[in-house]
Amino acid sequence: MWVRWWILLIPPLVVGFTLVAASQFIFLRVSFFQDLGLGRIGDEVVIENYVRFLTDGFYLKILWVTVKTSALAALSTLILGFPVAYLIARMRSSWSMILLAGIVVSTFVTIVIKVYGLIVIFSADGLFNQTMLKLGLFDRPFSVFGNETGVVIGLMHFTLGFGVLLLYSIIQTIPSSLESAAQIHGASRWRVYYRVIFPLSLPGVTAMLLMVFNMCMGAFTSAALLGGGRVFTLPVMIQRIVMMDIKYSMGATIAAVLLFSVIVINVLSIYLLRRLRAAHLVMV
Amino acid sequence: MNISLYKIQKLIGRFLFGLYCSFSYVFLLSPILVVIGTSLNGPTKNVEASFKFPPESLSLYWYTQIPEGQIEALALSFALATVASLCGCLLGVPAALGLVRSNVPGKALISAIFRAPLQIPAIVTGIAFLQLFYWIGDVTGFYWHGTLVGLAIGHIFIATPYVVGTVTAILQRFDTRLEEAAVIHGATPRRAFFRVTLPVIMPGVYAGALYAFMVSFSDVPVAIFLSAPGFVTYPVEIFFALENDFEPSLMASATLVIITCLFLLLLVQKVIGLDTLLKVGGSRGAS
User: What is the ipTM of this complex?
Assistant: First the structure.
């Protein structure tokens, strides 16, 4: 109006840009130098680290495990989250607020605390395993630690709350009158889901899947704790290589690969969300 | 006959749907409830018995056994989250105002820079800041990692985008004619801003501050690199406790954190309402 608003942009922009550029530049630059061991870095520019990442089966397997667990976690988030989001979005009583509060609480409690709960639940003589053994569903106790199933469960604890909230805002944009119309004309409940809700929410769901997949790719805490030193994803490997092997170059190389893939997926999902927003298919 | 069959079918469908949804809730909330329940175990002879759920006897014994290290870590986390949240607002609110109100070229790029910390995996942010602090230390002689300043810079970095996001969301819906009306009626632009615009965007600021607080309060990957032995945040402290010794008192301090989260959420519900919190914060949930 009468104020030069752009002046307000300068301080945060300078701080933000400096922090992003300086930290990323100093860290990622290292990926083009050789590790000399004990944290020392060579002074010749090489691409050796990247070649090693792309040819060494060890690193490629970690990349594959990361992609696999992230994809599984994203799909499971959708499968477990969509009905809940639908229920809350279509509920007309004040219960919907309470159900939403339950979701928000679960996203606010740090994943480390939830892992403590998982330890108790899945301990060999804990509630879950005793019930399952008695029912004869399992023949030996199931552990969530040190296997890929556990990592997927951990990732879901990180993403499910967020996924439900996002799906909730997507479903809210589908007028419930469309469902009534289909039902009045004789469609069964299942057919309404399949022919009305599913196609209308498909673009939003795709965006949500991409965002959740991305969160999982970069997730450190849940993957590290539930992987239990046996399942490695890229973020866990970065931490181990830097903190235990003190190989900054290789760590930076893995980080660069992770960063690149995450940004590509992010740009894709932002582009998709923008298209959706323009078409009023999502309210984020 | 037909109608009652239809009704029964409908009821069964509803029941199955409800069952499915409650499974999701059990999945999400059971670890939290189990932590709270386990923390109420009484003193036992062997450590394993203290991790029984449901607890065999109710007592607050483990709450009196929380070691000093955990209390210090909790205090540090709380202070850090407060600093991150306040500084996040100081940086984020002007950023959002500038982004929405000004017409500088390259807005998409500027907003991408503000959003960058959300795009970078937190573990990369952590190591990158550690390296940056090493470099600054080598040049100036002041090493920032393992100090409150270093931790705060890292957390302000990851928390600010949430404030930018929530305030932008509110500003985009703000009707600028309200401001114009105030000025036409004789208010100075400054007065119009502080008496009209600011009250309208305050819910966005509160929501952003809460998200920022929560992001900092539950962060592990950044703090794990920027804290030092004897100077760790609570999530990092219990992260390492999982790998080493495993004490029942952890359940008690974790319960205190859960109660703090519940209390903050209740406060937000009173001040701005849960629906506002969700409406402005859709860009990405906390933690």
Answer: 0.85
Closest-CA distance of chain B to residue A55, Å: 23
Residue B122 included in any domain? yes
The predicted pLDDT at position B254 comes to 92
* Nearest Cα residue in chain B from A15: B91
pTM of structure: 0.88
Tally of domains in chain B: 1
Task: Give the CATH number for residue B145.
Answer: 1.10.3720.10
Which positions ≥6 away from A233 have C-beta within 8 Å?
A62, A65, A66, A69, A70, A151, A217, A219, A223, A227
Residues of B in contact with A16 (CB under 8 A): 91, 95, 113-114, 116, 160
* Chain B residue closest in CA terms to A84: B21
The angle formed by the CA atoms of residues B20, B24 and B25, to the nearest 5 degrees, is 115
Q: Inter-chain contact B131–A23, Cβ cutoff 8 Å?
A: yes
- Res B287: pLDDT: 32
Q: For an interface test with B, which of A4, A6, A7, A9 has the most B Cβ atoms less than 10 Å from its Cβ? A: A9
pLDDT value at residue A70: 95
pLDDT of residue A284: 46
The verdict on residue B286 lying in a domain is no
In a domain, B239, yes or no: yes
A253 to chain B: closest CA residue: B124
DSSP string, B168-227: HHHHHH--THHHHHHHHTT--HHHHIIIIIHHHHHHHHHHHHHHHHHHHHT--TTHHHH-
Show Cβ contacts of residue B52 under 8 Å, excluding neighbours closer than 6 positions.
B38, B41
- Domain assignment present for residue B126? The answer is yes
- Kindly identify which residue of chain B lies nearest to residue A128, measuring between CA atoms: B53
CB-CB under 8 Å, B128 with A104: no
3-class state of residue B231 by DSSP: strand
Contact A23 B129 (CB under 8 A): yes
Q: Which residues of B touch A220 (CB under 8 A)?
A: 121-123, 220-221
The domain of B138 spans: 68-280
Class of domain A56-278: mainly alpha
Positions in chain B short of pLDDT 50 = 283-287
pLDDT score for B2: 66
**Predicted confidence (pLDDT) at residue A9 exceeds the cutoff of 70:** yes
Q: What 3-state class would DSSP assign to A164?
A: helix
Confidence (pLDDT) at B285: 38
The kind and range of the H/E element at A36 are strand A35-37
CB B278 within 8 A of CB A100: yes
Task: Report the percent of chain A where pLDDT is more than 70.
Answer: 96
Average pLDDT over residues A36-64: 82
| pLDDT, tens digit (0-9, with 9 covering 90-100), for A219-268 | 999 999 898 888 999 999 999 988 888 888 888 899 999 998 888 887 88
Domain definitions of chain A by residue range: 56-278
Whether residues A11 and B282 touch (CB distance < 8 A) is answered with: no
